[in-house]
Structure formats: C-alpha cells, structure tokens
Write a structure and sequence with these properties.
Blueprint: H1 3-6, H2 11-23, H3 39-55, E1 59-62, E2 68-72, E3 81-87, H4 100-115, E4 123-129, H5 142-148, H6 166-173, E5 190-198, H7 203-206, E6 211-217, E7 219-228, E8 232-233, H8 245-260, E9 267-269, E10 273-276, E11 282-283, E12 286-295, H9 298-318, E13 322-331, E14 334-335, H10 338-350, E15 357-360, H11 365-369, E16 375-380, H12 396-414
Parallel strand pairs: 3-4, 3-5, 5-16, 6-15
Antiparallel strand pairs: 1-2, 2-4, 6-14, 6-16, 7-12, 7-13, 8-11, 9-12, 10-12
The structure holds zinc ion.
Amino acid sequence: MKRSLFTLPTMGGNAMARLDALSAISDEPGRLTRLYLSAAHRRAADLVATMMRDAGCDSVVMDDLGTVIGRYEGAEPNAPALVIGSHIDTVRDAGSYDGTLGVVAGIGIVESFKAIDHRLPFAIEVMAFGDEENVRFPTNLSSSRAVAGTLPENTLDARDEDGISVRDALVAFGCNPERAFSLGRRREDVLAYVEVHIEQGPVLEARDLPVGVVTAINGASRRRVSLQGMAGHAGTVPMSMRRDALACAAEIVLAVERLGAVDPHTVATVGRLLVHPGAINVIPGGVALTLDLRGPADDIREKMVEVIETAARGIADRRGIDIIIEPFYDAAACPCDERVIIGLERSIHRLGMSPYALPSGAGHDAMAMAALCPVGMLFVRCAGGISHNPAESVTEEDVDVALRVLLEFVRDFAEGN
Ligand SMILES: [Zn+2]
C-alpha cells in the first residue's frame, strides 16, 4: 500500500486542535494546572476518551488508576498491542504539550488507519496516564507502573498535602482502588511502548531538527558533599594561612563542570551551595553542596561519578579541607529498545530527513513501561528547550513531522521490521 494512503494532510493540524482543547482544562483559572485525580484531570480524561472514540478506537476504558485506554483492534481479535501513550497530568502553571502530545499522537495514528479502514496484524492501544508529574502525591509514575505490574505496595496510602490518600482520591475519581494491583498486563499482550514527547531541552532546536530519537532515559547519581575548613577573620588571617571552604568549593564546582563535559552525553551539576557562616567579614569555614550527575549509560555515569569524587577529594586535600561525600540517590539508566530506535530512525530517513539520536535527561512513563515491554521515544523540538512553563511551545509543522514518523514506524513495525 502506498504511503500517501496512510498520511493525512491534516495530522499536525488535528493534533494541535486536540492539544489546544486539552490545555483549556485546568484546576486553576488563568493558568494550566492539572494534578493527578483532580476535577480537571477527570474532565481531561473524559475529553481524551471522546477523542479516542471519535478517532476510531473500538473500545475506550478507564482503568482503576485513572488511565484512559483506547484500543483499535488488529486484523484478528485479541491480538497483542503496540502501545502509544504518555500522560495528561501537568505540573502547576504548566505548558500545553508536556505529556498530552504523546497522547494525541497515538490518537492521530488510530485516526489515520481508521480513515482508510486498515487493520494491522496487532492492536494499537493509546494510553493516557495520569500520574507522571508526581506533583500532588509523593508517588512515582504510579499509573504506568500499574500497567507494567510494578505498582509499589504503599502507593494507595500516599497522601497529598490536604491529607487525602490516593485510595480516597481514586474512589472519588470513579476508580476501584482494590483492583489497582491487578492492572498489570501480560508480557505476551504488549509488543512495545512508544512515546512521543517534547524534548524539554535545547538540543534539537540548536541542531535545527524537528524530531530526535531517544537512545535511553538517563540514569542519575546524587551526592551530598560537605567541606569543612576553618572560619576566621576576613581582615586578619593572611591568605597563605587560610582553609577557605568556599574557595575549595569553587574549585570543585569548576571541576564538576569540566569533568561532566568529557563525555558528550553526560551532564553534571552543582545545584546547591550553602556557605557557613555566610558573613561578609568571615572566611567561610564550611560549605555543603550537591552533585547531580546523569548519563544514558550506567558504566559511563559510574565512571564519571568516580572521577568527580576523586577530583573533589584531591582539591580538598591540597587545600587542607576535610571532605565527606555521601551518596543518597542512584538510579540506573533506561535504555530504549534497539528495534524501536532503528525503526524510528528508518522512518525519519524515509521521510527525507537525517535521524539524530539523543538521550533523555528527564524521566518519562517509558521508564515504567520498560519493565513490561520494549520501549522507545521520539522527541519533538520545543522552543528554547522550555518546559514545565506556560512558555512551552511547539510548531504544527514539527508535530506533523512527528506524527508522520510515528505512522511510518507503525506501518514498518507491522511488516515485521
Ligand atoms: Zn512529560
């Protein structure tokens, strides 16, 4: 079948219209805030369900963690599914595209196949998750983890700042929390999970590319570093006799910046620096700082952590500063599936562009779904790399490219590639 039959001229336009409609649904007047299991989340879930039905899904259900699932059957009933999805919750004062783009992308794909009444050798399921931003409850990707069968036991007891538990919020939302732990899909029923998402970084824009293929979701290591020197009078202690903890910290910050850039895909940040006692006329005696180190490959990230820790100890030793480095968070990277990466790259090629691969610095539902099935992600350029902000912006042209790439990918996937 010719590609022209699959690609509707209005894919990008339809997606933008759906994104606009969703971005009007908020818990707060004048700005977009749609927290998990809120009234606005409920209205957005209902609208997404309507969009799924209108696009041609054969069935639309909401699961017991509030995930809206639209299914477009394959040629045979009960075929395993290719899942396309993302989330419809937002941060407070959010932009219009983070999450929802991946949901409307899935809806657009169903719409395209339905328009020519084409059935694939597998089903397509579009999933609109509700708990990705983890703003309201101290949970972590609970709706996608439920589908993956890895929902943590204590999830239902987590409470928001008003003391409302996830369990009670689910009941109010129309869900049955007793079924929360039986939502996990069987591996044989899910072929792969593909998520279209705004990049949330500036790389695609800098390279003048509409889309990029994600290689992995970065792993992260975090450390608390405390430096202890000697406080003293800023006027009387000669420079040669000082043990200035802040000067030591300054040197460490620059070393982190330099060593974080050795590999092109790692990033390293000192985001917090507390100076004690913090007075204009006192030599700083103590500094507490944080390290946030990320990368798409665990071995490379672990090596970077080691090199940075060694450098920091060396700098402190030379300056006579006591140093303590405490690990408090380590998360492995989530590599994207090779078949999905290659398939997306091939699709980009076929549409006359050069594929570009990049890691994801932020977490996504794909991380949770990776426990269930092969996952892949397609990033879309966003203006200035800005996200979690009302200034978040994408163009209709770029969204159109992303949808065409995804459509080509699905078509290719159906041929067994
Ligand atoms: Zn997101």
